[in-house]
């Protein structure tokens, strides 16, 4: 279950999701397509019939209160949590409830909340572990590309990961995910616990990763930043999608502003 307890922020409970904000994508343009997804934790119905679409080249943000089901959605896509009902497709191939390593091999890579780096290993060892499932000959060149994106990691390449700052550890977590060469990067709360200047840096990096060709599905508690960067976004409340629109439109939506953007 999402790590934080639910709170009372939210949009009116009778709100219905708006119509799709962008032209309907052809199936071939879809990176991810999630249909009528239901997830339970015991008797708790955590995700209640979610429909989410992520098109190739987009940044799609999921915003919502703590406990709304945002992290559960990413964990279900990546195979860490089983869906009871519904379907998840990656590039028109069903991946529902596949083992996590098989989903990584399909190009869907999860950078989890809390960084989850190996603190007893060096920066370079953590990055190489990200490429563990790969058998191609381009790992070394991809490592150089990741270090170009994160010059701080290059400076600390042999340093123990546990001695990095929080921001540097987040960079390492994203860098490790990139070493798997994702087609779709699932990012869970990348700004959590970071100072404001580092939050800005992380979001610039996310935009750069997207500009270089990686589709991004972003779960983020900083709703303003998440909507600023998003092509499209969904608002998730108590396991249901209550709104969807372009990021720009949701930034100016009065209900979203009241519930998530401080008015």
SSE arrangement:
Elements lengths: L29 E12 L2 E12 L3 E5 L6 H8 L7 E6 L2 E2 L5 H6 L2 E4 L11 H8 L8 H11 L1 H5 L10 H13 L5 E5 L7 H16 L3 E5 L3 H7 L2 E6 L2 E7 H5 L2 H7 L3
Parallel strand pairs: 3-8, 3-9, 6-7, 7-8
Antiparallel strand pairs: 1-2, 1-4, 4-5, 9-10
Helix pairs in contact: 3-6
Instruction: Specify the structural class.
Output: alpha/beta
Shape: globular
> What proportion of the residues is helical, as a percent range?
25-40%
What order do the helices and strands follow? EEEHEEHEHHHHEHEHEEHH
Work out the helix count.
10
Quote the CATH topology of one domain: Rossmann fold
Tally the beta strands.
10
Biggest sheet descriptor: 6 strands, mixed
Low-confidence region ranges:
3-8, 18-24
CATH H-level name of one domain... which superfamily?
Answer: P-loop containing nucleotide triphosphate hydrolases
Determine Rg (CA atoms, Å).
18 Å
What is the beta-strand fraction? 15-25%
Give the spatial strand order of the biggest sheet: 6-7-8-3-9-10
Averaging pLDDT over every residue, what do you get? Answer: 89
> CATH class of one domain, please?
Alpha Beta
């Amino acid at each position: 279950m999402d790590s934080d307890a639910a709170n009372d922020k939210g949009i009116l409970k009778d709100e219905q999701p708006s119509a799709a904000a962008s032209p309907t994508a052809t199936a071939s343009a879809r990176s991810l397509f999630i249909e009528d997804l239901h997830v339970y934790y015991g008797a708790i119905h955590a995700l209640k019939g979610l429909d989410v679409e992520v098109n190739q080249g987009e940044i799609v943000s999921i915003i919502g209160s703590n406990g709304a089901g945002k992290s559960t959605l990413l964990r279900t896509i990546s195979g860490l949590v089983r869906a009871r009902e519904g379907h998840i497709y990656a590039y028109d191939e069903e991946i529902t409830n596949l083992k996590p390593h098989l989903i990584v091999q399909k190009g869907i890579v999860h950078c989890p909340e809390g960084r989850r780096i190996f603190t007893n290993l060096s920066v370079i060892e953590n990055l190489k572990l990200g490429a563990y499932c790969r058998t191609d000959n381009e790992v070394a060149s991809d490592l150089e590309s990741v270090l170009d994106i994160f010059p701080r990691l290059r400076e600390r390449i042999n340093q123990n990961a546990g001695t990095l700052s929080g921001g540097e550890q987040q960079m390492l977590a994203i860098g490790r995910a990139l070493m798997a060469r994702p087609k779709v990067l699932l990012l869970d709360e990348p700004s959590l616990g970071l100072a404001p200047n580092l939050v800005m840096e992380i979001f610039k990096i996310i935009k750069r990763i997207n500009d270089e060709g990686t589709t991004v599905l972003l779960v983020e508690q900083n709703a303003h930043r998440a909507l600023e960067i998003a092509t499209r976004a969904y608002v998730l409340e108590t396991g249901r999608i209550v709104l969807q629109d372009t990021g720009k439109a949701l930034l100016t939506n009065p209900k979203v502003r009241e519930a998530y953007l401080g008015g």
